[in-house]
């Protein structure tokens, strides 16, 4: 499988925001039509990976905010 490009990650995040998680076939059809090498299963796996990154970033942001607030 190909690594995800930044453009694909952005399209995936926008697709999930617009159509909802779990609507992989619809996101594939509407946002990834020109990406023949990406399947709806790829989108689901990509979303899990992107979600993990977002959760880690959110934890870091909260930690920074708490540290800044305690100064």
Short description:
By secondary structure, the chain is an all-alpha fold.
Describe the structure.
With about 70 residues, the chain is mostly helical. The protein has three helices and no strands. Helix 2 (about 25-30) packs across helix 3. The chain is elongated, with a radius of gyration of 15 Å. The termini are far apart.
What key attributes describe this structure?
single chain, 71 residues, mainly alpha
Produce the secondary structure layout.
Blueprint: H1 6-19, H2 24-31, H3 40-69
Q: Helix coverage percent of residues?
A: over 70%
Cα gyration radius (Å): 15 Å
Tell me the quaternary state: single chain
Question: What is the terminal-to-terminal distance?
Answer: 47 Å
Number of strands: 0
